[in-house]
Amino acid sequence: MRIRTLLIALVALCASSLAMAADYYVDVTNRTGYTIYYMYVSPGNSKSWEEDVLGDDVLMNGDTQRVTLTGYTNPIFDIRLVDEDEDSYTFWNVDVSTQDIIVTLDHLD
Length: 109
Hints:
The chain is 17% helix and 43% strand. It is of the alpha+beta class. Keywords: Signal.
């Protein structure tokens, strides 16, 4: 009986942990007139930027890149893009569950 109760509790704990984590995505469209070389996406409460999600790719002017964010518990993210001239464009506290990003020169830091 104890083993059964323990197993039920363990399954419930695992299920609740999985239910809290979610997958999000955000579409980022480049309308700056420049090529974007780096795109950093971090949780809104983070104190530092995570890895460049573009890797070896670039985001050409006019193109859109979908960024999938896996295993997070909150849809609020900070997004920083850096172009070919090392100019940056930063978006703070973006709710990626309701908002995509269109980056223009108006967003230049």
